[in-house]
Amino acid sequence: MTAPVKPSPSSAPAGPSPSSARRRYGVLVICSMSLFMTYLDSSALNVALPTIHRDLHASVAGLQWVADAYLLVLASLLMLSGSVGDRFGRRRVFTMGLVLFTLGSALCSVAPSVGALIAFRMAQALGGCLLVPASLSIVRQVFSDPVERARALGIWSAVFGLGIATGPIIGGALVSSVGWRSVFWVNIPIGLATLQLARRTVPESRSTHPRAFDPGGQLLMVVVFATVTYGVIEGPASGWGSAVIISLFCAGAVGLVALLAYERHRDEPLLETHFFRSPPFSAATAIAVTSFLALSGFLFVNTLYLQDVRGFSALGAGASLLPATAAIAACSLVAGRLVGRFGPRVPLTLGGVCIMVGGAPLLGLDPHTSLLRLGASYVLLGCGFGLVNPPITQTAVSGMPPERAGVASAIASTSRQMGNVLGVAVMGSMVSATALGPSRLSDAAATKFTTASHLSWAILVACGAVCTVTALACTGRRGTRAAARVYQDEPHVVAGTS
Fold first, then answer.
1. pLDDT of residue 492 exceeding 60
2. Shortest CA distance to 134 belongs to which of 167, 87, 102?
């Protein structure tokens, strides 16, 4: 008679233990902390810009570069940094991003001039572009159960709304009580604490089939983004018809044509051009660019208006933006439920309409516009931005095989950042010809500023219209079926990330 065979540990019933669940959600908290830090930094910086203008004697173009230097690096390198984590280790890249972001924040806090601040913001962005895709990949890797993963990604994405909502208030309080440099100080303890937790808790992982690097495509992308951004920001000062500005726009156009031609002949390109044959993917890209152009442009111009035209303190400006930022946070959660029940078309369409309607009251903005009118506009705009953002990635991957989803998500994230860059550059340029003084503007200068801002608000309304029309035309079941046909017809399949 043989003894009964004891089940081996590997044959024991599978099921997550409480300790392993705590560990997974601990990793989620760490990744969410890093994301919160980056969004808090960007949104808090907006209310600090007028103070930076007065302290460092910066022009409006200088303020645009303070905001856009970070965003430009992020947009240019975001797709590359995702493949770096897949190849060399996601935890290694994540911790490196934390070190660079924290060090960049420390350097920004002691910047002696606008030029130095812009350079240090670019160094800070090198950390940011490693953090965002690495944290997303870590969350996807740690949560293997589809239901649990969806819940975790929803929490991770909701941090966007939390960072945007709290940034103006925290930034306003810091600037009013300590000074603009404290906006960067706050990142240092958060970054150091997250770094220590990540080293102890986050598991290392790599992709079994990492995508090949594409240095040629990366260089061309930097050329396109940098030349167009520089031309738009410096156009008002140099003259839109000047040789320098025209040359920059021509270089950007040539770079874009070369990028599209070059990427079409690579097996694993940085930019998958054939994705744009899918109506939902093209729609997601267009909505990402236009909605974030509207959001970043609104925050930039409106903050200058509240502080330099209305005379609000940094804290007062942050509190005035609370209706918008709170609406973004609340509607980001609502959007997730709407997507689950109706698909992305409903929240995208509603979001576009809210941006249009919310931007309309700003078309007649003047130095004495009632706070009630501003508040109503801010609430509607916040609802629009909150509803639009969460469905963008799901729309981008509609009808797409799973092995393509990672690349499509990276392009969608890059489109968001490019919208941020253009929003500050384009809408900021509308008011850059109006001189900002060392204190609150005079009545004549305030009127000049608000009149110049009307074109910015018209662009915002137009962005809402583009989001609405694009969502109605390209999303939904018909768009998903068209996307499925596109991917079924592809001659080869690109290896995805694990």
1. no
2. 87
* 244, 223 Cβ separation under 8 angstroms: no
CA–CA gap between residue 41 and residue 33 (Å, rounded) = 12
pTM of the model: 0.86
The angle subtended at Cα 332 by Cα 322 and Cα 193, nearest 5°, is: 75
Q: How far is CA 106 from CA 100, 187, 218, 342, in A?
A: 10, 8, 28, 45
Q: Kindly report each contact of residues 440-447 with a partner whose C-beta sits within 8 Å and lies 24 or more positions away, as own/partner.
A: 440/308, 440/309, 440/311, 441/308, 441/309, 443/367, 446/308, 446/309, 446/367, 447/366, 447/367
Residue with tokens 């991957």: 397
Helix count and strand count (H, E) for the chain: 19, 0
Within 10 angstroms of residue 247's Cβ, the number of other Cβ atoms is 12
Listing DSSP states for 411-431 in one string gives: HHHHHHHHHHHHIIIIIHHHH
CB of 164 closer than 8 Å to CB of 390: no
Residue-wise pLDDT for 411-431, tens only, equals 888 899 899 999 999 999 888
Q: 330-355 burial by CB neighbour count: b if 16+ within 10 A, else e?
A: ebbebbbebbeeebbbbbbbbbbbbb
The Cα–Cα gap between 457 and 431 comes to 11
From 412, 45, 465, select the one nearest 294 (Cα to Cα).
465
Contact 129, 10 (CB under 8 A): no
Q: Rounded to an integer, what distance in angstroms lies between the CA atom of residue 417 and that of residue 420?
A: 5
Residue type for position 144: S
Specify the DSSP class assigned to residue 326. Answer: H
Which burial class, exposed, middle or buried, applies to 477 when counting CB atoms under 10 A from its CB (0-12, 13-18, 19+)?
Answer: exposed
8 Å CB contact between 156 and 31 = yes
Residue type, 256: L
Tens of pLDDT along 129-160?
A: 888 888 888 888 888 887 787 778 777 877 87
Phi, psi of 197 (to 5 degrees): -65, -40
**Closest of 71, 63, 61 to residue 234, by C-alpha:** 61
Counted residue by residue, the chain has a size of 498
Torsion angle defined by CA atoms of residues 181, 433, 306 and 387, in that order, rounded to the nearest 10 degrees:
-90
Residue 9: the pLDDT is: 42
Distance CA 428, CA 241 (A): 19
Distance CA(100)–CA(312), nearest Å, equals 34
Q: Which tens digits make up the pLDDT trace of 235-283?
A: 888 888 899 999 999 999 999 999 999 988 888 888 888 888 888 889 9
- Spell 253-276 as b/e; 16+ CB within 10 A means b: eebbebbbebbeeeebbbbbeebe
Q: Report the alpha-carbon distance of residue 479 to residue 349 in Å, rounded.
A: 15
As a whole number of angstroms, the distance between CA 456 and CA 451 comes to 10
The pair of three-digit structure tokens given for residue 69, joined into one six-digit string = 């230097």
